[in-house]
Amino acid sequence: MNSSYFNSAAGAFLGILFVVMTLSIVSEGIYDAHEPETEGFAIEVAESSGDAGAPAEEAAPELIAPLLASADPAKGEAVFKKCAACHTNDASNANKVGPGLWNIVNRPVAAHDDFKYSAAMTEFSEGGSVAWDYEHLSNFLAAPKKYIKGTAMGFAGLKKIDERADLIAYLRTVGDTPAPLPEATETAAEPAATEPAAEPAAMEPAAEPAETPAPSE
User: What predicted TM-score, i.e. pTM, was given to this entire model?
Assistant: First the structure.
């Protein structure tokens, strides 16, 4: 009895083993996967036209001069409230955290009396030869620490050029006499004058052929 049971169990085990091995061989034949020559996945990268390590060129700053004629000093006075904590705007020209801003437009850079400027601002002034003209003011107000690296001015800047134009238009009035506005420059070149086409020369009539003498008889 025990021997018969053992033989039946062994036969069943061998039968199952045979079926499993058969299925394994058949599946390998159907799904034949070859090992790759190199492990991992190949990732194709498109070639760039430029130098990957080269820094991107910065766009030239937008000019403030064309906007000043239409800028609003009243709006600029409201914008000045962002500056009032560090600067005065009256004729006393007193210094606070920053220098007084009376007569600031076209004033030489780092030239306010009794104010200690940073070394970066003093260097930028080039000994008083650089003035706070409209473009310098606009570029500095846009991003002080970026325009003059090392400046002690902690203002984050005015990114919108229209807002800067209004503020500078207001600063223009903060002085003994408003600074003159920059002259508009003509950018379009006048077309070159074209000379009229020369009239074709008059055709002279062809000369009549000379009479040939009649042949002698």
Answer: 0.59
